[in-house]
Amino acid sequence: MLKSLLATFCLLAVFSSAIAQTAEKNGKKTSAPSKSRVEIKTTAAQMASGFIAAEAAMSPAELLIAERVFQGRISCELGAFVTLTADVKSPGYFDLSIKNQKFRMFPVETSTGAIRLEDPKGGAVWLQLANKSMLMSQKHGQRLADACVNPDQAQVAEMMIKNPPPSLLDAPGAVAAK
Q1: Which of 130, 88, 74, 82 is nearest to 103 (CA)?
Q2: In the CATH scheme, what architecture does the domain 60-162 have?
Q3: Span 54-110, pLDDT tens digits
Q4: What residues does each domain of the chain span?
């Protein structure tokens, strides 16, 4: 909705500018731009920046998710690594890089409790679980990095190996007996 309003106002500014330029070319006006044209451009620019700021604002739930994101250089399988850093100018946003690719990520609420960061333009999704993280490409339908683990996740993974959680396929009585 916000993007369509932004596009409408931008088109309005461009359209009014084109009309004024056409009038100038036809000899109807050769002086400085009219006040109304300048006002329209200024208003469109102010509204566009307001829409962008409103779209960039995070909900309290998203900001809480952002606080739980592991940052830094995170080692992945096959010698790969991901670098994830918070954007100090935009709370809740992260810059993620892997090899020669860079993504601008923001948190998205999930029903499972997993931490999910997305970059809709780049088509990337970062999923952070208690024991590992992974980077996926929605555009290509494949994982860009898997088994990415920071020290905190490594501890959880080790505990899961020593004390495996109950299987979802176990009967309820079998889980209680353990």
Answers
A1: 82
A2: Beta Barrel (2.40)
A3: 456 788 989 989 999 999 999 999 999 999 999 999 999 999 999 999 999 999 999
A4: 2-56, 60-162
